[in-house]
Amino acid sequence: MPSLNEVAEFNTVNGIGVLSLDSPPVNALSAAVRAGLLAGLNQAAADETVRAVVLICRGRTFIAGADITEFGGPPKGPGLGEVQDALENSSKPVIAAIHGTALGGGLEVALCCHYRVALGSARCGLPEVNLGLLPGAGGTQRLPRLVGVEKALEMMTSGRHAPAGECLELGLVDQLVPEGELESAAIAFAEQVVAEGRPLRKVRDIDEKLEAARGKPEIFEAFRKGIARRTRGFLAPEYNVRCVEAAVNLDFAGGMAVEQELFRELITGPQSLAQRHVFFAEREIWKLPDVPRDTPRIEIQKVGIIGAGTMGGGIAMNFANVGIPVTLVETSQEALDRGLGVIRANYERTASRGRLSSEEVEERVGLIAGSLEMEKIADVDLVIEAVFESMPLKKEIFARLDAVVRPGAILASNTSALDVNEIAQATTRPESVIGLHFFSPANVMKLVEVVRGDASSDPVIATSMAISKRIGKNAALVGVCPGFVGNRILSARQVQANRLIMEGAMPWDVDRVLFDFGLPMGPFAMSDLAGLDIGWNKKKSKGETVRDVLCEMDRRGQKTGAGFYDYDERRNATPSPVVEKIIREFAARGGSEARAISDDEILARCVYPMINEGVKILAEGKAIRASDIDVIWISGYGWPAYRGGPMFYAEQVGLAEVLGRLQELAKEYGEAFAPAPLLEELVAQGQSFRDRGF
Ligand code: 3HC
Ligand code: NAI
Q1: Is residue 1 predicted with pLDDT exceeding 70?
Q2: Cα 661 to the chain's mean position, in Å?
């Protein structure tokens, strides 16, 4: 085989040069790939018998982007710009043959080819925004020239992978070709280009679609308004928009200069560093040091769920969405009907927004059956229990499951706080028992904590991770401890939030600081949303806490129109003078005098105990890696990805700085801030979490 280097080959078929790349896993544009591309183009130029070139990739995908692992390192080999110039200025037509995904730099390479063909199953996109970046190899200038301004803005700020059919309609792809025939069809396309003497079409020279947007700044203003909420705090979406504006208002070279400048700013800035960390963290969570990769998996063909309440219904939808039939078991027909009704209503709401067809609604609803008999799930492969949070009830249910469900099935609990080991002891097969802790709303939230019990077997753990991946979740393997990982860290914050309002801050002060930090909401807004009466008992309530008093006044959160805040009929919140008075009275009774508390103190007192708790969790082995904790807080609680998760944030601030602040706070406010011994050790030895194997 005429190999160009370790990743590239060049063959000639009937006068068509086939330049193929093979650099697993995703043919990212590493130095070797760039060198191979350049060598192939030089060879094509030098060989008189070659009339056109097909650029194709081996393995699972076309080029999926720049090699992210090279970012931040010294430049190596030929630059991407040099390769792209060689492609675009080739005197012989170059045709990109796309399968899998042409993403980021990969699509930007394809956009420098003169034509593009793709399999119907392929997808194209510029997902750089998800890495805190913008397409920095001409994508911001070429994409709008092909697909128009609005579409380019939408694709670049969402990072969406557009299916090939849509790409064909948009003009991003010139022809779809049959599965299994990519190479031969691309060669045939190239022969046709040569036979018909079609021009060497350069995307940079196309102008009609940009012309349509010239002198219309309102297009950009409207677009910015439309994405403002979703992209709050992120720099990259705005920078992507500015590049498209430049494409419209400047010539190609001018637009490229803007792209280069903004790209450089993003790639050297803190947000992209954090978002690249998140990209790799989300891939690392699946790696389990003590569960071998080849552990046999239990095949999950049918699922049973006990309890069709808030969580059971949402969990069921996840499985129906990927075609796995589910049986929901309830205690009464009424509860069952209510649960199934909520599921249907949820699907219909999605359909009414155009995101599901009515056939798909029926198909999914049809996959979810209800029953009042546990025996109906005797033959399932996985059971998830989601009944009330009560240990005696859970034990009773697991004993029943043990008697009824086939041996070898996984018996999982969705408990948010109870001891999974104790639940497992209610069965004769604790090795089959595990926690699968979903987050509410379970059909939406991306996180599952897979809670391993002392006895959970490797196949049960491996299968739990795999099935979570299949239903589109980020799963983190965690150990048994109160609140597991996510809620344990949340509690550390809640303790401080409650203390802060006794010292003089108001709930809306605390919420504002955390909202401005980038969280979707602060602790008090979150309590109002969830309902202040979760875990509250009317009969036992004696007005001992602010929450008790609010519940007793029927201020039980958004659902009653009032909680820490007052709500109007559209659920807009305003600070409540009544609540302020109650809090002041409580504080006065406790003997503390209200003082002004700075935003900086609020942030430190809420966030540093979270970090400290995270370190304790690592020291106890309840989470595998610091980056797993980051994924948990980003996908389960909305920690802003541009701050990389609490543990990444701690390292950005500096572990020594965090330790110093905790020590100061401990002097003032006591034990709750006592630094974790592991944190002290890391700082003493100048180590990062990763240096210590976390
Ligand atoms: N660079 C380096 N490594 C990459 C990579 C990239 N661009 N994309 C994926 N990988 C690695 C992953 O880290 C993973 O490694 P691991 O097996 O050691 O964990 C491996 O490839 C497989 O990745 P996935 O597990 O994600 O595989 P999937 O099949 O689920 O998904 C994919 C494939 C859709 C290509 C997905 O990997 C993906 O979205 N990749 C990133 C695409 C992207 O963001 N491209 C833009 C890069 S930035 C850029 O191009 C800048 C330019 O404008 C200048
Ligand atoms: P819920 O009260 O909405 O639903 C519980 C359902 O279980 C009810 O429909 C009830 O009729 C049914 N049930 C009770 N006993 C049963 C039995 N013996 N057999 C069959 N069904 C029975 O409760 P929710 O909120 O769905 O919580 C369920 C579990 O999920 C709890 O363990 C909770 O801690 C946990 N969880 C809840 C979260 C939340 O935000 N609501 C988040 C994560 C976990």
Answers
A1: no
A2: 31
Look up residue 124 and give its DSSP letter: E
DSSP code of 225? H
Whose C-alpha lies nearest to ligand 2, atom 20? 330
Residues 18, 184 contacting (CB under 8 angstroms): no
Q: In this predicted structure, what is the pLDDT of residue 75? A: 87
Task: Give the nearest ligand 2 atom to 530 CA.
Answer: 40
Please tell me if the CB atom of residue 506 comes closer than 6 angstroms to any atom of ligand 2.
no
Q: Which of 9, 88, 128, 245 is catalytic?
A: 128
Residue of 324, 144, 320 lying closest to 241 (CA atoms)? 144
Using a 10 angstrom Cβ sphere, with 0-12 exposed, 13-18 middle and 19 or more buried, the burial of residue 296 is exposed
Q: Are 34 and 2 in contact (CB under 8 A)?
A: no
Task: Report CA(342)–ligand 2 centroid distance (Å).
Answer: 14
How many other CB atoms sit within 10 Å of the CB of residue 268?
11
With a 6 Å cutoff on the Cβ, whether 65 touches ligand 1 is yes
Q: Given ligand 1 and candidates 68, 239, 627, which is best to mutate, with the most ligand atoms within 8 Å of its CB?
A: 68
Among 6, 48, 70, 108, the active-site one is 108
Strands 123-125 and 162-163, sheet pairing: antiparallel
Give the Cα separation of 413 and 517 in Å (integer): 34
Q: With a cut of 60, say whether residue 677 has pLDDT above it.
A: yes
Domains and CATH numbers, the chain: 8-267 (3.90.226.10), 303-481 (3.40.50.720), 505-509+519-589 (1.10.1040.10), 599-692 (1.10.1040.10)
Q: How many CB atoms lie within 10 A of CB 654?
A: 11
Q: For 275-307, what is each residue's pLDDT tens digit?
A: 999 999 999 999 999 999 999 999 999 999 999
Nearest Cα to Cα of residue 560 among 536, 542, 541: 536
Q: Tell me the ligand closest to 385's alpha carbon.
A: 2
Cα(659)–Cα(8) distance, rounded to whole angstroms? 50
Task: Characterize the bridge pairing of strands 115-119 and 52-57.
Answer: unpaired
pLDDT in tens, 460-486: 999 999 999 999 999 999 999 999 999
Ligand 1 atom index nearest CA of 130: 44
Burial class (CB in 10 A: 0-12, 13-18, 19+), 224: middle
Q: Which residues contact 51 (CB under 8 A, 6 or more apart)?
A: 15, 16, 92, 190, 194
- Per the annotation, the verdict on 128 as an active-site residue is yes
Ligand 2 pocket residue status of 377, Cβ below 6 Å:
no
* pLDDT tens readout for residues 141-182: 999 999 999 999 999 999 999 999 999 999 999 999 999 999
Look at residue 591 and tell me whether its pLDDT is greater than 90. no
Q: Which ligand 1 atom sits closest to the C-alpha of 69?
A: 2
Nearest to 219, CA basis, from 161, 171, 152? 152
Alpha carbons 262 and 134: distance in angstroms, whole number: 8
What distance in Å separates the CA atoms of residue 361 and residue 350, rounded to the nearest whole number? 9
Strand residues in 576-694 grouped as ranges (E): none
- Does ligand 1 lie within 6 Å of residue 128's CB atom? yes
Is 370 a residue whose pLDDT tops 60? yes
Mark whether 150 is an active-site residue.
no
pLDDT in tens, 89-108: 999 999 999 999 999 999 99
Q: Are 611 and 651 in contact (CB under 8 A)?
A: no
